[in-house]
Each structure stands twice: as C-alpha cells, then as structure tokens.
Write a structure and sequence with these properties.
The chain is an alpha/beta fold and about 325 residues long. Helices cover about 20% and strands about 30% of the residues. Strands 1, 2, 3, 4, 5, 6 and 7 form a seven-stranded antiparallel sheet that branches. Strands 10-9-8-11-12 form a five-stranded parallel sheet, with helices on both faces.
C-alpha cells in the first residue's frame, strides 16, 4: 500500500483525553481529496498502523485533521500518538479511504456521535453545513471536559443544529433515543459512530421505525462476542501461490500464514478496516468481522483473515 509523508503541523488538547493532530504535506501542496466519513492509516512504527477518521471538511485539502482518544487499554496506537508524536514530526500515512460514505439523501440527516465517534461525524456535519443541507447532530459524552470540539460545535454556524448530552445513564439514553427516533422522517438518513454499546442501542431503537437502508454506522472495534466464539482448527490452501497450511485454534489465518513467511497486508487486525480483504474460492468462512455487509458474508466469496475463521475443514483463498 502506498504511503505519503506528512508533517505534524499542530497538536491540540481537544478534551481531557483527546488530542487533535493537524497534518500538512511536506511541500505545502494540497493533499489527496477525500469524502466525508473517510479515514487514513497512520504508520506509527513497524507493524503499528492505526486508522483515524478525518474530521476536517472535505473542501479543505491543505491539511488533514484527526483526533485520537487516549485509551486506557491501548494496544500501542493511542499511547504512541499521545506520548511520542510532536509538532514538526514527519509521519507516514495512507491516502484517505472511505468505508462510511455519506450518501445523497432527499430528506434530513440525523447524525449521532458517542464520544470519540464524533470524528467522522464532524466531517459530515461540516460538509452538510457547507452544502446548506438539513441536518441535526446529537452528541453524547461523559461531561463537557470529555467533549472534543465542544467550542467549535458551539459556534454560531452550528446554532440550533447541535445538541450536547452529558452523562446519560443507559436508561436515560434509551428513553431519549426512543423519543428521538420514534418516527422515520421521509427520506431521512441516520449516521452514527461511537462505542459499540452506544451503537447497538441506537441501532436496535431505530430498527423499530427506521428502514435498515437509512441507518449507516461505522465501528471502531470488532464485535467481542463474535471474536470470543469457538475456535476450531482448519486448513487454508493458497490457490495462486500453492501450499496448504494448518490454522490451529487460537491462531488467526494471518498469523498461521506469517509463520510460513507469507505476509498478508493488515492494519487494524480487528476485522474493521478492510485492509486484509481476501477472496475465497472454496469452503465456508466463519465471519467474525464487522467490515463485510450481511449480503457479502452470505455470498461466502470474501473473508477478513485477521479475525475470521472457517466453518469447513478447508478454505481455498485467492492468494
Ligand atoms: Fe483490518 Fe483485517 S486488518 S480488517
């Protein structure tokens, strides 16, 4: 995957545990264009690649703005971003990719953000504002101190369009969502991003009244229930390069192949980003990712080998 080098122009503390990073091209030229909902891969060290959503408006390609929450259970990414990256540093990033496309809608847009899930939602809000399209942003956080971009979203241009909610308990959140989503506005579109429990709650509440095609979401993490499922051993055969390799229980396809010197591009290793997408020519995958759609999972012709496994004794992969 090709990467480009960018300079960290500015770092700002956006909330008690969230920093934003403004990235500019080394030459000062424009960066590759992007659409709202896009993310970039940030290469932090060998084998340490993380995805962060772009939060600036897509019309401004003289910089990319990302925001990173410092996770207490960091696997290294957020810790490196918060502790090691300094203004003036050069870092390698990928060109933007979009797995969370803001689609054309003839009705109002309802944007829901939980915590750091505000990052892609912010790019969407900026875009809709610039286009003069009707939207409302509901933003849920623990407290004002945990609310990234609070000052910006409180500005006059967002007046009447942004509503902040602090420290809602699950019951209060459930009741509020029921009220908010009680009726489907004609041609409306719902976009949401945040922690899994938040998204599960929004999705299940919306399901009572909103058609599934009007609800769009982006996950940051794999589904822990799917990942915790049973693990049987199986074999993978590589159709193009040849060779059949065992994948024992507790070992991913990626790890099993790496043990034989076969590298597959990965990034999140959580079944979220799509980097490791691989074709399946024979066999039945046991999908554990949140990247493929339900229809793609049913067709059984693709797999995310960083997390998914096999229901059949053998998988033949297009590798
Ligand atoms: Fe991200 Fe597999 S590496 S989905």
């Amino acid at each position: 995957m090709t990467t480009l080098s960018v300079r960290v122009h500015k770092i700002k503390q956006e909330a008690s545990d969230i920093k934003s990073f403004e990235l500019r091209s080394v030459s000062g030229d424009a960066l590759p264009a992007f659409t709202p909902g896009s993310h970039i891969d940030v290469h932090l060290a060998e084998g340490l690649i993380r995805q962060y959503s772009l939060c600036n408006g897509p019309d401004d390609i003289h910089h990319y703005l990302i925001a990173v929450k410092r996770e207490t259970e960091s696997r290294g990414g957020s810790q490196a971003m918060h502790e090691s990256i300094k203004e003036g540093d050069l870092i390698r990033i990928s060109a933007p990719r979009n797995n969370f496309l803001l689609q054309q809608s003839n009705g109002p847009y309802l944007l829901l953000a939980g915590g750091i899930g505000v990052t892609p939602i912010l790019a969407m809000a900026r875009h809709l504002l610039a286009q003069g399209l009707p939207f409302e942003l509901q933003y849920f956080t623990r407290s004002i101190a945990h609310t990234a971009f609070h000052e910006f979203l409180s500005g006059p241009e967002f007046q009447g369009r942004v509503k902040f909610h602090y420290a809602l308990e699950p019951e209060g959140l459930r009741a509020y969502l029921r009220k908010l989503l009680w009726q489907y506005p004609q041609h409306g579109a719902l976009y949401l991003c945040g922690p899994r429990v938040f998204m599960d709650l929004v999705e299940s509440t919306a399901a009572a009244t909103w058609p599934p095609e009007a609800v769009h979401l982006e996950y940051f993490n794999a589904d822990p229930l799917a990942l915790a499922g049973e693990q049987e051993s199986f074999e993978v055969r590589l159709a193009r390069t040849g060779g059949t390799y065992p994948v024992p229980a507790g070992v991913t396809i990626i790890e099993a192949l790496a043990a034989h010197g076969i590298q597959v591009d990965t990034s999140c290793e959580q079944g979220v980003c799509g980097t490791c997408l691989t074709g399946v020519l024979e066999g039945t995958p046991d999908h554990r990712d949140v990247y493929l759609t339900d229809a793609e999972k049913k067709s059984c012709d693709k797999i995310m080998p960083c997390v998914s496994r096999a229901k059949s004794p053998l998988l033949v992969l297009d590798l």
